[in-house]
Design goal:
- By secondary structure, the chain is α+β, with helices and mostly antiparallel strands.
- The chain has 2 domains: 109 residues, Roll (Endonuclease I-creI); 93 residues, Endonuclease I-creI (Roll).
- It is 35% helix and 23% strand.
- A hairpin with a 2-residue loop joins strand 3 and strand 4.
- It is globular, with a radius of gyration of 17 Å.
- The mean pLDDT is 93.
Length: 208
């Protein structure tokens, strides 16, 4: 971290551990994104940002991925006349992130990967819920509004088939997409799968 540019050789030697890759998969399914810093950059970088209310989570992720990162940044944004305060970071542009780009993007639109069955490990699921999940009606909603219904069903199918969770599809309140609801009857299974990967400040998303 903070040591300047990597040479092409060093960049090619940087790999993702299985654990860190699962974290990144979870981030990309929720609030993370892959981008190229400029048109001349050949390697993608990971970006992640959340409100300062979730600063503990952002800093936890940063510490886990700091090997790949530059320093965190603070930013203010205005939406609907209200100022929002955010904390985020970017990784370096590296081949290990470039390899993930075609899995998650078609024509620069983020999708649920075709191979999501194998990619959605318990670690990835934990970070998907911490990033875009919420506890409601004694179950867990996953905010998949930005995806097409086909993508959302693909993700829900993995939760049903791989993890035996009872799930239903609900129309989002903004009427622009659908959300996945994991039934209260499957809450104990979700906790058993993911709670050991949660940070305490995010336990409320599991109803704890």
């Amino acid at each position: 971290m903070g040591v300047g540019r990597y040479t092409k050789l060093v960049s090619s030697m940087v790999k993702l551990s299985n654990y860190n890759k699962s974290i990144i998969i979870g981030l990309l399914l929720s609030d993370g994104w892959l981008t190229f810093a400029s048109k001349t950059n050949k390697n993608a970088r990971l970006g992640f940002k959340q409100t300062v209310n979730n600063a503990y989570y952002v800093l936890f992720i940063f510490n886990e991925l700091s090997h790949y990162c530059s320093y965190p940044y603070y930013a203010e944004s205005k939406r609907s006349g209200k100022v929002h305060y955010n904390l985020g970071f970017f990784t370096r542009g590296l081949p290990c992130f470039t390899e993930l780009h075609p899995l998650f993007y078609i024509n620069n639109v983020k999708i649920i990967p075709e191979d999501i069955y194998n990619l959605l490990t318990p670690v990835a699921l934990a970070h998907l819920i911490m990033g875009d999940g919420g506890f409601k009606s004694k179950g867990i909603y996953i905010c998949t509004d930005s995806y097409t219904i086909q993508d959302t069903v693909r993700l829900m199918s993995v939760l049903i088939i791989r993890y035996d969770l009872k799930c239903t599809l609900h129309k989002a309140s903004n009427e622009q997409g659908y959300r996945i609801y994991i039934s209260r009857n499957s809450l104990y299974k979700v906790k058993k799968l993911v709670k050991s990967y949660f940070i305490p400040s995010m336990y409320y998303k599991l109803g704890d």
